[in-house]
Design goal:
Organism: Minutocellus polymorphus
Number of domains: 1
Order of helices and strands: EHEEHHEHEEEH
Number of helices: 5
Number of strands: 7
Protein name: Protein ENHANCED DISEASE RESISTANCE 2 C-terminal domain-containing protein
Distance between the termini: 19 Å
Largest sheet: 5 strands, mixed
InterPro entries: EDR2-like, EDR2_C
Shape: globular
Radius of gyration: 17 Å
Helix content: 25-40%
Strand order of the largest sheet: 1-3-2-7-6
Pfam family, one: EDR2_C
Length: about 160
């Protein structure tokens, strides 16, 4: 699922913790004993676009089998994912999370500005991590880099 929200300012506590957004609404339904479509674990990537106006673009990924990311299935991916999602080192996360930008359709100027070179985001932007037993949210703060803020604004 994907949400794009216009807000009054960057919400550093994350969208997964926001009481009016999808994850907290689903958790509330579960606590009330009502059906919920929330998977066992959610990974969310939240791109906070500096304003005004401010936006949060949140990409939600369902993890139906937690052994795929908690290291218990023994694969190299699972072991690395366990360290990333459940480990204590924000420095490791800052040095590991990489994005490969790509704009398939858009004007030439935007495509050229964004490019397609992979980037370790922790070297470019301030990253914030929000973790609970049900979700992991990575918040990319585009306001921490004037270049990144400008590039993201081009894409809006």
């Amino acid at each position: 699922a994907v949400d794009m929200l216009e807000v009054d300012g960057t919400i550093y506590s994350g969208m997964c913790a926001h009481p009016k957004e999808r994850v907290q609404k689903a958790l509330k339904r579960e606590r009330q004993g009502l059906p919920s479509d929330l998977p066992p674990y959610v990974v969310a990537m939240n791109i906070a676009v500096a304003g005004p106006p401010w936006y949060h673009m949140v990409f939600y990924y369902a993890v139906d089998d937690k052994s795929l990311i908690d290291g218990t299935n023994g694969t190299p991916f699972s072991k690395l994912a366990n360290e990333f999602f459940f480990g204590d080192s924000d420095e490791m996360r800052d040095e590991t999370f990489k994005m490969i930008p790509r704009i398939v359709e858009g004007n030439f100027m935007v495509r050229k500005a964004v490019g397609s070179t992979p980037a370790i985001m922790g070297n470019k932007l301030k990253q914030h991590y929000i973790r609970t037993d049900r979700y992991f949210e990575l918040l990319l703060d585009t306001g921490s880099s004037s270049v990144a803020a400008g590039v993201f604004r081009l894409g809006l």
